Amino acid sequence: LHARYVLQLLCETKRVLKLMPNISHLSTSYSKDITICGDLHGNLDDLLLIFYKNGLPSQQNCYVFNGDYVDRGKNSMEILVILFAFLLIYPNNLYLNRGNHEDYMMNLRYGFTKEVSEKYKV
């Protein structure tokens, strides 16, 4: 995805996230499932497998991602683009929690900063 569109996506996601509360309360019922996912660490195949097995996020298919989307793997940026796009489409059905790898120093140490620099020349 061209850097211009990634930047637009990031700006819009930031705007939406600022409007959201810091704490989200979710509940399940017999008629609604919630898929809870953890630690993707830049492994796009894992995210695609989750969507393949559980379906894409939608109003009927709620997801909670418990952070650590980036670092270590080589496709952290692609994961963020996909998750942010779904967040913008389904803000009430996709929840993104922050993990310890969504931190500037962790990104420097474990590779996300380098990945972004290589994919989108600064």
TrEMBL record:
Keyword Hydrolase: yes
One Pfam family cited in the UniProt record for this chain: Metallophos
Keywords: Hydrolase, Manganese, Membrane, Metal-binding, Transmembrane, Transmembrane helix
EC number, as in UniProt: 3.1.3.16
InterPro entries named among the record's database cross-references: Calcineurin-like_PHP, Metallo-depent_PP-like, PPP_phosphatase, Ser/Thr-sp_prot-phosphatase
PROSITE patterns, alphabetized: SER_THR_PHOSPHATASE
GO molecular function: metal ion binding; protein serine/threonine phosphatase activity
The Serine/threonine specific protein phosphatases domain, residue ranges: 97-102
Swiss-Prot/TrEMBL cofactor(s): Mn(2+)
SMART domains: PP2Ac
Catalytic activity annotation: O-phospho-L-threonyl-[protein] + H2O = L-threonyl-[protein] + phosphate
Transmembrane parts of this sequence: 79-96
The family this protein is said to belong to: Belongs to the PPP phosphatase family.
Name of the molecule in the record: Serine/threonine-protein phosphatase
Organism: Grallaria varia
